[in-house]
Amino acid sequence: MNPRVTFAIAARVLAQLRRDHRTVAMLVVMPALLVTLMWWMFAETPETFDRVGGALLAVFPSIIMFIVTSVATLRERSSGTLSRLFTLPMGKLDFLLGYALAFALIAVVQAAVVVSIALYALDLDIRGQAWQLGVVAVLDGVLGTALGLLASAFASTEFQAVQMMPAVMIPQLLLCGLLVPRDHLPAVLQAVSDVLPLSYAVDAVGGVAIGRGFGQGAGTDALVVLAFILAALAFAAATLRRRTP
Known about the structure:
InterPro entries: ABC-2_transporter_component, ABC2_TM, ABC2_TM_bact-type, ABC_2_transport
Radius of gyration: 18 Å
Low-confidence stretches: none
Subcellular location: Cell membrane
Helix content: over 70%
Strand content: under 5%
Order of helices and strands: HHHHHHHHHHHH
Membrane topology: Multi-pass membrane protein
Shape: globular
Largest sheet: none
Transmembrane segments: 24-42, 54-74, 95-121, 133-154, 222-240
Distance between the termini: 26 Å
Number of helices: 12
Structural class: mainly alpha
Number of strands: 0
Protein name: Transport permease protein
């Protein structure tokens, strides 16, 4: 791993995103719009929005980051850009960490926007500290990025990368505790839920929302999310192909 190369890759990705206004709008604005839509849906029952709103701050950024990252990485490989990059003194981990760093910076902006709107415009009721909620929201966005990078290593086309979303993210969405509390799931599904990263992302956000901060359990869930991020990046580096067959 070469930090100089990693930062160069991150700068390159950010330069590309700066020219792609639609993608930036999707990454930064879309999670806030989706949370606002959910608030509107539950306008007559605000207590329901208060119950699920925190979890949405984990789910929406992760899903959107997953889609954009997986497709963007596939485009690099299918266009031959990745093959040309690997003619330089650059390892697979440098490439993946550069992408992860660039999207982590986007995740900071994304989290700042969606958390601010949820708390101050939509009056989401939380008893924890806003900065902790923001930190967890950033981690959740980076989790989606890491899973997207991992999924792209197994796809051959951009269409296949999009197809990965139902396989990778939808089961996590169903079992993460957003729809049904995880301890109310059947035993088998609860066991599956216990090994899915989005479950811990939702638990971390939910813990902060109810006032159980980093020193009272939410920090452990956030560390588990971080461990999943690192594991996904390591596995992606081991499986990433330099070109599309």
